[in-house]
Structure formats: structure tokens, C-alpha cells
Amino acid sequence: MVVEEYNEIARHYRIKETVGSGGFAKVKRAVHLPTGETVAIKIMDKVALGADLPRVKTEIEAMKNLHHHHICRLYQVVETSRKIFMVLEYCSGGELFDYIVQRDRLSEIESRAFFRQIVSAVTYMHYLGYAHRDLKPENLLIDDEQNLKLIDFGLCAKPKGGMSDQLYTCCGSPAYAAPELIAGKSYMGNEADLWSMGVLLYALLNGFLPFDDDNIGMLYRKIKSGKYDTPDWLSSESLILLKQLLQVDPKRRITVDELLNHVWITKEMGVPVEWNSKYQTSVLDDDVVTEMSVHRKVSRETMKAELEKWNYDYLTAAYFLLLKKKTSGRPVRLQMTLDSEPHPVVPTTRLLSCSVVYKETFNTIHATLYTLPKIIIRMYFSESTKKPLRKARTPRPGKKTRQPLARNHRDNSLYGPPPSEPMSRKNYYRRDSDGDTLDGDVWSLENCFPHGKQQCPESDKHSWTKETTPLKNSPCLPFTDDYRKSLNMEMANYESQSNPLSPERKCKSVDDSLHTAHFEPMTPSKQKKSRMFGSFERGLDKMKMILTPGRKRLGSDSGPRKIKASYNVSNINRCEAALLLDELKRIIPTKHMEFKENGYVVRCQMRDDFGKVVLDFELEVCHGLCGVRRKRLKGDAFVYKRVCEGILADVDS
Ligand SMILES: Nc1ncnc2c1ncn2[C@@H]1O[C@H](COP(=O)(O)OP(=O)(O)OP(=O)(O)O)[C@@H](O)[C@H]1O
């Protein structure tokens, strides 16, 4: 039963809303019940991961070794027969990308404050022998104290021979990729990271990318040339540092050691970047151990011995979260007893990190007793709207299949009607990422490196499945009320998610980046090429709508939501919500996107020619000054930005 997949995690966490999703995962906010602390839970489906499962292992292993105040902390890992849950430090401030979007570009002072944190995290990683290989503003989250936390270690590499070892796998996001990497040469992970940091710094200071082009070939040429615009507002020190970072010859590129003390980095602060971790893991905290031992009714020594196993189980999570409370000056108190008794998870594989002993003992008993699911599972699609599904093209294992270059073409057939091959109910459930009727081989984290050798897997070895859209004939189907309710449901809502986790690739190899070439070129008038994000905001600002009173929206009797100003809300003057919504709905299909409407929320999805959802975001018309809340759920941030700009430019025209 699907329910069982969540039992283990539900013992200690109350799951809340989805806060993001990537190629691999859906990320939910959750509350850790024993401490009351908020966490993020990254949920991955093993079948959907397929051959990318080793990347998850890479990420978990790296996060277990990396303990730094600017690296997102891993608290717990739960592996069930079909799911992997990573419980992570929650970053409430969103992505650095969105932060820049809101501000057009950052001041030099603010850029420096953020960049120092990035330098600190990356230097720490490099000293521990790790290269991140996917540094970009989407992978830097902001916590509630405005500190950056680096995430997404699925592509990181820890060369056996240390940083001097050459790497060969071409991965990461193309706009941030170093010239030696896109040239297909061997490269050094740390040098490639420094190039990406140059791109990042440029984006912070300017609000657009140094190398950008709709055409991937052209983008590569620009990167290899190392030539970029230097706007007037850049100080001479900034220009020097950018030049040192964006050196085409990796051997002439600045090193992290030089960076720590760089004149731009230390300007106005006077001190070099402190890269040593502020976290202490070699000695356990006495107060936390005492609190936990009292609750577990064991001696402090026993408690210490359990914690020192660093199993990344519920005990590790409780330890880290109590420690977090302590460091932020709050009482080190558990609000409920730490329950060691497992729920009846019936894993086909051993958990990666949880104590296996108790699981094996109790699983047998509970598997027998546990018959009634505790929660109701809803399917939000009614029969009439259930989408016909089909299996997407399945690249043959072993055969390296690249995403077709055709994505470069601006050919509508790429977005043509989704394949209509119907899928049986059985198959429907079979491919549901949160479903329990999936069959076939399910790998575990333990057996995903059969030869004990970590490889960057060829992500194209998936058996892709896709969900065709009910929008084929009708571009505007409202969500049902059930779905609306389900948005607020906690456990029961997993089955009713509108967008089951799709097995999108994690490794955005350079060829993969052709996703970015999907979009119509902007006409000169629409092209605000020099700006990375601002046009989106401006486009919204310029929307003028005619006032029409009192129109009601399906499923939104109460009208648009009132939302406070936030980093992802754009205010628009002089408009009426209903008309703004109509206009958005008119424009979105012209961008070859599907959408679903739920009240004043329009969820937009774009698929590639395999039918895979490559971009997924929400636009919500809000009340007040009339604003649009935007939320990227999935897909490349720059593609998202371009699509949104395109929509708004059309609304504006
Ligand atoms: N710890 C966190 N706190 C808050 N939000 C988070 C956290 N981790 C991830 N997210 C959100 O979820 C999104 C997806 O997470 P992540 O990048 O780890 O998933 P992924 O499947 O590995 O993504 P990708 O395909 O980009 O590699 C992030 O971009 C971010 O918006």
C-alpha cells in the first residue's frame, strides 16, 4: 500500500505543502513533531529515478560528510521499497534566483555578502575533496536569517586522487559550464566550480548572465570566447575579479585560496572569508544528549553510543534539530517521546541508515496486524478527466541517447498534441510516482553501485513514462474541488497530486540543455536581452486591464487571495483580477503550454518532445493592488524566466 510508503516518515513528521520540485524530487515543508522544528523533505520515487538512483546516493553521501553553515544540512534519510525521503534543513527564503528576480540586480555590498558565503561553502567543499559541479542561483537557498545554503549535491564529484584528479563527465547547467567542460575535455572539478562562481557573481551584480543565447551552439561559442558585456555600474574591482574568475584557460583562473583574500572580497569587511565550518560534529552536545536520553529512558552513555553511529535516522534528526534549537537560544526540549517503534513499513530493501535490527523484528508483526490504511487516498481526477497515458519513448539501456537536437528548432510539432495512446488503468497506476502498484525491479540505495564504483550514470537509460494531458482538446480544465481541498491535505494528498513526479533527468548535460532552445525567439521589441529577470516584473507592472465588476471564477467563490508583498509577488496597478486571469489564459496556450485553472491559480506546464514535463510553474492572480504570485515548481530557472517574460510581453502588447 502506498500508505505504508509514508508510515515511516509520518511517525515523526507532519507533512505540509510542496515548496519545490526538481528533476528528481518533490520537496515538501514538514514539521518535526518531537521538536516542533520545520524541515524540508525531499521525496523521490525510486522507479522514476531509475538509473539516476546512484546520483541520490552521491547526494546523500556528500551531505553526510559536508557539515557547514552555508550548506543545507541533512537530518535523516528514510528509504522504503519505493521511496527515498531526505529530511533537510528548511530554507524559508526561497532560491537566490528569485531573490535576484525581485531586485533586478544586487548592490555590490549585498552581492559581496552573498558571494562570501558562497566562497565559504565552496572552499570548504573543495578542501574536503568535493567539487559541486552545479553551482547556480537556483541551488542556493536563503534561510530565515538571510544566509545562503547550498543544495543539490547530486552531481558533485569526489575524485579518488583528490582535487588534482581529472573529471570527464559533462554535467551541470550550460550557462554556468566552464569552457573546458563544454569542450568535452577532461577538467578539474574545482576549476570548473570557480568558473561557475564567476557566472554567479556576474548574475548577482548585473541581474543577467554573462553568456546567454537561445541557440545552444551560439551559447557555447560565447562561453569559449570568454567575452561578456561589462555594464557601467560594475566597479573596477568587480571587473578585475570577474576577469579572474571567467578565465577561459583554467590554469589562469583564480583559485579558492586567492579568492579568500581577494581585494573585492575583503573590501569594507577587512577580513578574509572564513571557510571553516562553524558546526561541531566531533563532540556531541551534552544538553541535547541529556534531553534525548531522558526521553528514551536510557543512560547518557547509551544515548551517545547510539548517536555516534550517525545513522541518519530519527535519532540523528532529533539530535540536529535539538541542537538547532539550542544554538538559536531556545529550550532544548522534546515535545513528545521519541518513538523507536517502527510503523509497518514493508521494505523490499534495507534502509540505508536506519537501524535494521528493530525494523526486522517489528516488521513481521506489524505487517500482519496492519490492515487498515489510516488515511484516505484520493485521486483528484474524476473518470471523465482522467488522462490517457502512454509510455514515452524508451531509450535502450546501454545506448547513449541524447535529447534530440530538434529542440533547437522552433517547430511547433515539438509541442504538438500529446500522444494519444491510451493507457490502461493498470498502467496508469503503475506509473504513478506516488503509487504503490508499480512493478518491476526496484533498486535500493545499497545495491545501486553493484561494483562498488560510483559512476555518473547515463541519465538516458530510463524507461520514461508520461502522462498525456486532458488539455489536448480543451485547453482549460478546472481542477476539481477535491483537488483544491487536497492542496491542504497532509498525508492523504500524495496520490492526488496533479503532477506526479516525472523522471526528468537530473544531470542537465550540456546536450540536455537544449531544453533551453525550445522557445520562440523574442522579437526585438520584446527582447530585453540585457536583463535577466527585470522584464518579468516590468511586464506585470505595465499590464492594463479594463475594469469589470463581480465576475466569479470556477472554484474561487471567495475571489482572489489576498497576498502580502513577497519576493515572488509582482504588484500590478490598475487592473481587475478576472480580466488579468482571462488574459493569462489566452496567452499561455500560444506559448505551447498547457494550463490548468484552479480559481485564480493557473498552473502552466511545458513538455518536451518526449512528453516529459520540462517546465512547471504557477501564476496566481492575487487580490490587493492586484498582483501575480509566481512559483516555479520545476524546470530550468532561465527557461521559466524566458517563458514568463514571453507571456507578459504578449499580455502587454
Ligand atoms: N531545504 C530546502 N528548503 C526549502 N526548499 C527546498 C529545499 N530543498 C529544495 N527545495 C526546493 O525544492 C526545489 C527542488 O529541490 P532540488 O534542487 O534539491 O531537487 P532536484 O530534483 O535534485 O532538482 P534538480 O532537478 O534541479 O537537480 C529547489 O529548487 C527548492 O526550490
Automatic annotation (TrEMBL):
<keyword id="KW-0808">Transferase</keyword>
<dbReference type="InterPro" id="IPR000719">
    <property type="entry name" value="Prot_kinase_dom"/>
</dbReference>
<dbReference type="InterPro" id="IPR001772">
    <property type="entry name" value="KA1_dom"/>
</dbReference>
<keyword id="KW-0053">Apoptosis</keyword>
<keyword id="KW-0472">Membrane</keyword>
<keyword id="KW-0067">ATP-binding</keyword>
<keyword id="KW-1003">Cell membrane</keyword>
<keyword id="KW-0723">Serine/threonine-protein kinase</keyword>
<dbReference type="GO" id="GO:0106310">
    <property type="term" value="F:protein serine kinase activity"/>
</dbReference>
<dbReference type="Pfam" id="PF21594">
    <property type="entry name" value="UBA_MELK"/>
</dbReference>
<dbReference type="GO" id="GO:0006915">
    <property type="term" value="P:apoptotic process"/>
</dbReference>
<dbReference type="InterPro" id="IPR034673">
    <property type="entry name" value="MELK"/>
</dbReference>
<protein>
    <recommendedName>
        <fullName>Maternal embryonic leucine zipper kinase</fullName>
        <ecNumber>2.7.11.1</ecNumber>
    </recommendedName>
</protein>
<keyword id="KW-0446">Lipid-binding</keyword>
<feature type="domain" description="Protein kinase">
    <location>
        <begin position="13"/>
        <end position="265"/>
    </location>
</feature>
<dbReference type="InterPro" id="IPR011009">
    <property type="entry name" value="Kinase-like_dom_sf"/>
</dbReference>
<dbReference type="Pfam" id="PF02149">
    <property type="entry name" value="KA1"/>
</dbReference>
<dbReference type="InterPro" id="IPR028375">
    <property type="entry name" value="KA1/Ssp2_C"/>
</dbReference>
<dbReference type="GO" id="GO:0005524">
    <property type="term" value="F:ATP binding"/>
</dbReference>
<feature type="binding site">
    <location>
        <position position="42"/>
    </location>
    <ligand>
        <name>ATP</name>
    </ligand>
</feature>
<keyword id="KW-0131">Cell cycle</keyword>
<dbReference type="InterPro" id="IPR048637">
    <property type="entry name" value="MELK_UBA"/>
</dbReference>
<dbReference type="GO" id="GO:0005737">
    <property type="term" value="C:cytoplasm"/>
</dbReference>
<dbReference type="GO" id="GO:0005886">
    <property type="term" value="C:plasma membrane"/>
</dbReference>
<dbReference type="GO" id="GO:0008289">
    <property type="term" value="F:lipid binding"/>
</dbReference>
<dbReference type="Pfam" id="PF00069">
    <property type="entry name" value="Pkinase"/>
</dbReference>
<keyword id="KW-0547">Nucleotide-binding</keyword>
<feature type="compositionally biased region" description="Basic residues">
    <location>
        <begin position="387"/>
        <end position="402"/>
    </location>
</feature>
<feature type="domain" description="KA1">
    <location>
        <begin position="608"/>
        <end position="653"/>
    </location>
</feature>
<dbReference type="GO" id="GO:0004674">
    <property type="term" value="F:protein serine/threonine kinase activity"/>
</dbReference>
<dbReference type="InterPro" id="IPR017441">
    <property type="entry name" value="Protein_kinase_ATP_BS"/>
</dbReference>
<dbReference type="InterPro" id="IPR008271">
    <property type="entry name" value="Ser/Thr_kinase_AS"/>
</dbReference>
<comment type="similarity">
    <text>Belongs to the protein kinase superfamily. CAMK Ser/Thr protein kinase family. SNF1 subfamily.</text>
</comment>
<keyword id="KW-0418">Kinase</keyword>
<keyword id="KW-0597">Phosphoprotein</keyword>
<feature type="region of interest" description="Disordered">
    <location>
        <begin position="387"/>
        <end position="432"/>
    </location>
</feature>
<dbReference type="GO" id="GO:0035556">
    <property type="term" value="P:intracellular signal transduction"/>
</dbReference>
